[in-house]
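Request:
You are asked to prepare a plain-text protein record giving the amino acid sequence and the backbone structure tokens, at your earliest convenience.
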Amino acid sequence: MSAKRPVTGLQRSTLPNGLTVLSETIPGVRSIAFGAWVRAASVHEPRDRMGVSHLLEHMVFKGTRSRSAHQIALALETLGGSLDAYTAREHTAYQARALDAHLATAADVVGDLVFQPLLRDDDLQLERKVVLEEISTVEDTPDDLVFELHNEAMWGAHPYGYQILGTRETVSALGVRELRELHTRAYNPPQVVIACAGNVQHEQLLDVLEKTGWSAHPRGDDRPLRAPALSPSEPGVQHVKREGAQTHIVFGSPTVAYGDPRRYAAALVDTILGGGMSSRLFQRDTGVHGVYVGTAPKTARDAAAAVRDQLARVAADSLTDEEIASGKRQLAGSVTLSLESVTARMYRAASSALYDEPYRTLDETLALIEAITAEDVAAVCAEFYAPEKQTVVSLGPEPAVP
């Protein structure tokens, strides 16, 4: 196997079967976070199979060759740990939190989920209902639904605009055959990234993976899954009429991808524009900035006008020196606090492999934030934040933008 041991403390190996393994030792803790990222998710789905990655993520918990659903649920819970999973746009993740003494159990359970699910038809009938209920929940939650509508409006027919949960039609049509086809194609060691952080040594982690069978799985299909070329729609305004006590509005546009060094400047601008009210998402191929407003219908147009005015000011005049300094402090504090947990450090380790980005220490990251210049901020503001570049979607009784 090949191994890299950067001075930053992150250690990385590639096993003979193609599995990528990363670890970071965190002194002074007695726990570990262990995760497996499969490089397959909604961006790789054809439209008629929208939601298949998320449905497969649900189904692996219904039983494996060595554990029942009940045993999976209790495997870590009875040890004081936890087990979770999620489907994003570019990958599907399975993760465990446990005491350091239970690393082998965590690795064994996650390995079971990734490589040994039963995928039975009887389980699918029940789990499909669970996913359909999730879709209904989004439809009944306007401040969630408006983001789905905005995403679709911004990306059009591209899979970045797909709903991760799928639609009622696509989920109802998916069968065990489609789940097994995806599992066979994508759930192979070369498509998987393992990351572990906490009280763990890299050689110890490799030994655990050997003993729990990770290294014994064959390479399988090692061709990377590909997403279609990006094709965002032209900016525009869309309103979806729906009765309710509020009008929900999202302004947003594509920005920079995860590996683009300008993402720090973009994150700073978003921090100043709204902090918790503003969302940002950096992916491998693209990023998105967004501003969300929920307001009474009678004030919706005023609220939308205020957002447009603010975006126009930022695009034309950028931020003041004082705002940039404040944004740096907020961003540096947010990054520092986010890395206080072993789970966050696990995510950071995985990201270096998932996005082919050099691993940076906290001090190196803070130095990049401090190095943001007024010119960097002005360039980002001018390129991405002008009102005419925004896709605007409102959901409520009346349009928020004429």
